[in-house]
Design goal:
By secondary structure, this protein is of the alpha/beta class. The chain is built from eleven helices and ten strands. It is globular, with a radius of gyration of 20 Å.
Length: 322
């Protein structure tokens, strides 16, 4: 009789919150099998605006200790060499080897076209990692052209062709894209030169989520990977939002953790960045479930606008790119 009484509140909870019985896999252990068979961590450590050998070593030390196994860099970040040097020192400290780490870097928009292969070689030399796990086209336009110039399509096609060569020659295991909208992605899929993109890394948070793009990526088995998951550098609209704070308080988590979990719960990979050990650890402590009703609240935040660098020439709005 007592056992039956004990089960009643659990059954009632499951009726009102179907997520109650969902299996929670530790965020640091969540992986996704890419369309080429490679495995990628769902939570990575972003390094945009993190520069300097000492700082890089400090944050990577903290990140590896917290359980991060994906490090996201780019030619534009100017930190590939420092990341490579730091990993050589830190991997033995954490009883890890190269195969335990997933390294992502990206093609600079200044290197579109035939220069892409040489740029990939340069990134690999800087990282000094034997190979790169994932190399992305960072932006669908060239710095040498106006975004609206139709020649951008020709250049990114040639860039992709060069990266395909990079895969075949062992420089990188996988290739993908970043900041591609639906049109750019469909264009690439029509002529992928024999290798399909495995990832599309885009801005994604409750104030800006592209559902049509997500559906296309799911259909084509392309992993959507989110950057600016907290709303963008310097933008605290989401972190200070009353509704998000209410959800966070209810779950005993921070607003940042709720925002990161919101993406992860939709099978969208994330690459949060932080400098302090506290937030580095907090950003991967996502082993909880957001109830369906709260997910719906977050889903309805969409304001359909880009907020990354809105006042600069390099505005990260792919809809402006021909």
């Amino acid at each position: 009789m007592m056992a039956r009484l004990f089960l009643i509140p659990i059954l009632l909870l499951s009726l009102f919150n179907p997520a109650f019985f969902e299996e929670i896999v530790a965020a640091k252990d969540q992986k996704y099998t890419l369309n080429n068979g490679a495995s990628i961590p769902m939570v990575g450590f972003g390094t945009w605006q993190i520069q300097g050998a000492d700082l890089i070593k400090q944050v990577l030390d903290d990140a590896l200790a917290a359980g991060y196994r994906l490090i996201d860099s780019a030619t534009l970040y100017g930190n590939e060499a420092d990341i490579g040097k730091a990993l050589k020192e830190l991997l033995p400290k954490h009883n890890l080897s190269r195969k335990d780490i997933f390294i992502t870097s990206k093609l600079s928009p200044a290197d579109h076209g035939e220069k892409a292969y040489q740029a990939l070689e340069s990134s690999l030399k800087n990282l000094d990692s034997g190979y790169i796990d994932l190399y992305l086209i960072h932006w669908p336009a060239s710095f040498a052209l106006n975004a609206s110039d139709p020649k951008n399509a020709e250049l990114r096609d040639e860039s992709w062709k060069q990266l395909v060569k990079g895969v075949k020659n062992g420089l990188t295991k996988s290739i993908g894209v970043s900041n591609y909208n639906v049109r750019h992605l469909k264009e690439l899929l029509k002529n992928d030169h024999g290798i399909k993109p495995v990832v599309n890394q885009v801005e994604w948070h409750p104030n800006y989520h592209q559902n049509e793009l997500l559906e296309l990526c799911k259909k084509e088995n392309i992993l959507l990977q989110a950057y600016s998951s907290l709303g963008g550098t310097g933008n605290k609209n989401l972190l200070e939002n009353a509704e998000i704070k209410k959800i966070a308080d209810k779950l005993g988590k921070s607003p940042a953790q709720v925002l990161l979990r919101w993406s992860l719960q939709q099978n969208i990979a994330i690459i949060p960045k932080a400098r302090s050990a506290k937030y580095i650890k907090q950003n991967i402590d996502l082993d909880f479930i957001i109830p369906n009703e709260d997910m719906e609240i977050l889903n309805n935040f969409n304001q359909a606008k880009y907020i990354v660098n809105p006042n600069k020439k390099y505005i990260w709005n792919p809809d402006t790119v021909a």
